[in-house]
Amino acid sequence: MLTQVKDNVFYTGIRDWELRLFHGHELSTFNGSSYNSFLIRDDKTVLIDTVWKPHTDTFIETLEAEVGIANIDMVIVNHNEPDHGGGLIALLERNPNIEVVCSVKGVDVIKKHFDHPNWNFHPVKTGDVIHIGKADLTFVEMTMIHWPDSMMTFMSGTNILFSNDAFGQHFYGQSIFADQVDSCLVWAEAFKYFASILAPFTPLIKRKVAEVVALNLPLEMIAPSHGVIWRKDILKIVEKYAEWSEEYHEGCVTVAYDTMYGATKRMAEAIAKGIEDSGVPVKLYNTATSDQSDLITEFFRSKGIVLGSCTVNNGALRSLAGVVDEIRGHKLKGKIGFTFGSHGWSGEAPKHLQQDLGKAGIQIVQEPVTAQYTPSTEELAACYQAGIAFAKKILE
Ligand code: FEO
After folding, report:
1. pTM for this structure?
2. What residue ranges line ligand 1, CB within 6 angstroms?
3. Residue 283: which domain range?
4. How many Å lie between the centroid of ligand 1 and the Cα of residue 292?
5. What is the pLDDT of residues 26-48, one digit of tens each?
């Protein structure tokens, strides 16, 4: 039996409680995820999105048993990343007459993924409407949020916005609805999802959220393509997206370091103590042992980013290279930082980190703090003072 979402709309997705990594090995998903697909039974039988390819067999078997794939008239492809478009081939193989509705760019994306140029494509753009019986489907392009082909679909009558990746979470819970699961977990995952996937697109998201709000749609549900469906206080997630798109921070600091024998770690702790004693919340992370998705989420949350490494082979330890590249790639804005590290003789790491952090878009507000071999009492005191000075700039 398919789970009813609302009226004539049913859930046909896959809820993946085993998933722990997403986008290959790039993103952690400690609470699983889901690939949400929906079936609309109107005069037309319409499918909204499919699922990730490894789950295609289950997806197809369920559809065959519940509706009969020969009876499906149309599939709306809001976005053809393989986690949503993975079931298209199997679907169209069984029923080549299915109309494939997607954005104009979506036609190209689908053709490049699957060598089937003769599928029954129906490209749509913002404002286009398709009548499926009692309900109308209206489309809103979401170009580069986060792929060229991305779009949303609004269904009249049920007033559901099928928002695809937007407003989603990598989360598996005991229900498909947000109001029936642990709200702390859902909101933490929604924030991590935004910070680790959507942060690079914040200028576009800001404009798009304003555009969607201006449409004044009578929203009763937002059904993203990952995680749970929002059906209570649904504008809260829209408002959060607007807030997270505005050079977001919570006034805190993240100190992230890598260390060989613990000297740089002691410096990190002294810097953090100076920050904390100044009344600014601060958290410490070892970049070599921390989850990278959680780390970028903490950077996104922070106003200050402090990076440290001891020097090896005239540079920083290699875990810092990945961290700086993540900061650059996520285009974090409105954040300040400085660097530190211990060394034996040459001591280039803090300077290199400073240059790289600056190039990654973080405003460098004070010079690096250094120590030789095991930091002395005086050198640790300098770290503490650097923390106090940095906290003052956070509070300005
Ligand atoms: Fe969930 Fe962009 O795919």
Report:
1. 0.96
2. 79, 81, 83-84, 146-147, 165, 225-226
3. 253-391
4. 19
5. 999 999 999 999 999 999 999 99
